[in-house]
Amino acid sequence: MVTPIIIDTDPGIDDAAAISLGLCHPEFDVKMITTVNGNVGIEKTTANALKLKHFFNSDVPVHRGASKPLLNEIVDAAPVHGESGMDGYDFPPIAQKDLASTHAVEAMKETILKSENPMTIIAIGPLTNIAILLSTYPEVTDYIKEIVLMGGSTGRGNVTPLAEFNIYCDPEAAQVVFNSGLPLTMIGLDLAREAIFTHDYVKSFKNQNETGQMLHDLFQHYRSEDFEYGVKIYDVFTILYLLQPQAFNVKEADVQIELAGHYTKGATVVDFESQYPNCTVVLSPVDKDYEDLFLNALSYCK
């Protein structure tokens, strides 16, 4: 059965990989792409989503979302993704007419309530749009199958010693989502750190198709941690997990967000011993299955 999805995103090089596979794979029906401030500012994340829409000649609508966190100061990751957020590939010019006029939160509400089947939300940026949606229109929760998000960590962070970037950008929004009562799957830093894309592996799909070339070029400009060993394509694992959950090791946990700590704000506090878990935490891949999963999904792209 084809899964209807919404991709909420802040492209972002690793976002580009997830969006590419999501748009092209026959197991997904992407209803919309919604953008949020994160890796770069909202104007650039929205422009990047439109670049990908144009690259794939897609009719999936792109809706601009939140331009700033609920309470937090704006931070970005331009040193990691480049000034544009997707440096490394020469995309054709975009047309602003391709941007849908409805705000992302309103568009999500309308689409979710009208969907014949419960919607899966793939959240690969800060959770601002999702938190506003759930707080403003709580009736949508009955029509959401699950939220699969990239964010958090069971241990060390990547923007502070304990906080992962997407959660750190808007910890208050994350706390709303993690306590929404919806089925959640957290794909954090743990998985990507165990499932690195080596530089030789990235070269192996360079000539597979146009998308492989595009992603290869982007990855050469992606300065994720431990770049000397390979690239950590965090966001793409949301797609790969949905395609084959059994290829990953998971554990139930209660996850709360630290909001007040001077040194720990934005940390995901993961309690695997809780009697009341609120999400599934994806910890690691099973063997090297993720590499085959990625190449198979890439084969559906142009």
Summarize, please.
With 302 residues, this protein is α/β, with parallel strands linked by helices.
List the helices and strands and how they pair.
Elements lengths: L2 E7 L3 H12 L3 E8 L6 H14 L6 E3 L13 H4 L17 E2 L3 H11 L4 E5 L4 H9 L7 E7 L14 H5 L1 H8 L5 E4 L1 H6 L4 H6 L5 H10 L16 H8 L4 E10 L10 E4 L7 E7 L3 H10 L4
Parallel strand pairs: 1-2, 1-5, 2-3, 3-4, 5-6, 6-7, 7-10
Antiparallel strand pairs: 8-9, 8-10
Helix pairs in contact: 1-10, 1-11, 4-5, 5-7, 11-12
What does this structure look like?
With 302 residues, the chain is an alpha/beta fold. The chain has a single domain, classed as Inosine-uridine Nucleoside N-ribohydrolase, Chain A. 34% of the residues lie in helices and 19% in strands. It is built from twelve helices and ten strands. It has a ten-stranded mixed beta sheet with strand order 4-3-2-1-5-6-7-10-8-9, sandwiched between helices. Strand 3, helix 3 and strand 4 form a beta-alpha-beta unit. Helix 1 runs antiparallel to helix 10 and helix 4 crosses helix 5. The protein is globular, with a radius of gyration of 17 Å. The model has no long low-confidence stretch (mean pLDDT 93).
Q: Would you list the SSEs in sequence order as H and E?
A: EHEHEHEHEHEHHEHHHHEEEH
For the record, the CATH class is: Alpha Beta
Number of domains: 1
Per DSSP, the total helix count is: 12
**How many β strands by DSSP?**
10
CATH topology term: Inosine-uridine Nucleoside N-ribohydrolase, Chain A
Q: For this structure, what is the CATH homologous superfamily?
A: Ribonucleoside hydrolase-like
CATH architecture group name: Alpha-Beta Complex
Largest sheet: 10 strands, mixed
Radius of gyration: 17 Å
Distance between the termini: 22 Å
Shape summary: globular
Proportion of strand residues: 15-25%
Unreliable stretches: none
Strand order of the largest sheet: 4-3-2-1-5-6-7-10-8-9
